Amino acid sequence: MKAVIYEEYGPPDVLQLTELAKPTPKENEVLIRVHATTVTSGDVRMRAFVVPRLFWLPGRIALGIRGPKKSLLGCELAGEIETVGNDVKLFAEDDQVYAATTFGPGTYAEYVCLPEDGPVALKPANMTYEEAAAVPFGALSALNFLRKANIQSGQEVLINGASGAVGTAAVQLAKYYEAEVTGICSTANSELVKSLGADKVIDYTKEDFTQSDQTYDVIYDTVGKLSFSSIENSLKDSGIFLAGSMTAVQGQWLSMRSSRTVIAGTDSEEAEDLAFLKELIEAGKFKPTIDRRYPLEQIPEAHRYVDKGHKKGNVVITVVHDDK
User: Fold this and answer.
1) Beta bridge partner(s), residue 38
2) Under a CB-based contact definition with an 8 Å cutoff, are residues 317 and 302 in contact?
3) Are the C-beta atoms of 135 and 285 separated by less than 8 Å?
4) Nearest to 206 by CA among 229, 228, 233, 184
């Protein structure tokens, strides 16, 4: 099968198109014929090994000391099930599915095997494979963090990085929970964020929200650009800072020193959450934003684009199989 691998950290050129053996599903696994995947901010950071200096050694231990332990990048997909293992009960051949694979195999390939009880769900019926592949990374992250904040109707929520993959999902989900949403983005992305339902948009190139008297119930930093010290006074006394780029330990330490709460740590990926998102999508209450599309063979070019840091929503990779 065709796949794009990397065997050393570095620029997009380390990504190489190659042929790998087609995987065989275990008894509890499904073999998915991948039709679409994405290039996320996490993918480009792993490829180039971009981590905070403090986490350099733990990062190397986790990802690979001399080179990447896992040669395939990619953390979400949409496709159809080609084969199921003997013990699989939840899915059948030809089922159209979408999945998150951050903690599993990479998706830059024509085929991927996943356990049936993993974060896999039937694809929304009103979406293409490309659209469905762009859902899990951003929407699961946003859903997890907003739920941790116990977001309520009428709360004032500020979303930093509102035009990215996580940010565009967070705006829509916060509106689903009936919050009053303010999105922060650049001039070029203001109309996009408004179209997603934001009640107000702040152009960070023209205005610094921390210099305003406005305070918020929740501030969600989806891009890791804000420090707690810089935004603490912009939170209400019992406000919550959702810090997607911090560790849980950092969040707990900061919370101990303030009347505000800092929530950080990793996201969870559950099939139940994908099923919930499927319901929202089919009800017309959520739709991923797609910026650009590239074929599998042009993944290095897609990485170069994402490296610039200005993508709107998601960058999708289409996988065309030679036998079709």
Assistant:
1) 316
2) yes
3) no
4) 184
Instruction: Give me the residues paired with residue 316 across strands.
Output: 38, 293
**Rounded (10°) CA dihedral 300, 140, 318, 62:** 40
DSSP 204-262: TTT--GGGSS--EEEEEESSS---HHHHGGGEEEEEEEEETTS-HHHHHHHHHTSSSEE
Distance CA 114, CA 23 (A): 10
Q: Give the integer Cα–Cα distance in Å for 12 and 88.
A: 37
Instruction: Give the number of other CB atoms < 10 A from CB of residue 89.
Output: 9
Question: What's the distance, CA 154 to chain centroid?
Answer: 26
> 249 falls in which pLDDT band (50, 70, 90)?
very low
Nearest to 235 by CA among 213, 215, 263, 262: 215
Q: What is the pLDDT of residue 224?
A: 86
Average pLDDT, the chain: 92
C-alpha closest to that of 311 among 160, 213, 188: 188
Asked if 264 contacts 243 with a C-beta cutoff of 8 angstroms, the reply is: yes
**Confidence (pTM):** 0.93
Read off the pLDDT of residues 168-205 as tens digits, 9 standing for 90 and up: 999 999 999 999 999 999 999 999 999 999 999 999 99
pLDDT for residue 246 is more than 60: no
What is d(CA 303, CA 284) in angstroms, rounded to the nearest whole number?
A: 30
Give me the percent of the chain exceeding a pLDDT of 90: 79
- The candidate with the shortest Cα–Cα distance to 243, out of 194, 260, 259, is 260
CA angle 137, 128, 195 (to 5 degrees): 65
Residue-by-residue DSSP string for 139-200: HHHHHHHHHHTT--TT-EEEEETTTBHHHHHHHHHHHHTT-EEEEEE-GGGHHHHHHTT-SE
CA 90 vs. chain centroid, Å, equals: 25
Q: How confident is the model at residue 245 (pLDDT cuts 50, 70, 90)?
A: low
Phi-psi region of 49 (alpha: psi -120 to 50; beta: other; left: phi over 0): left
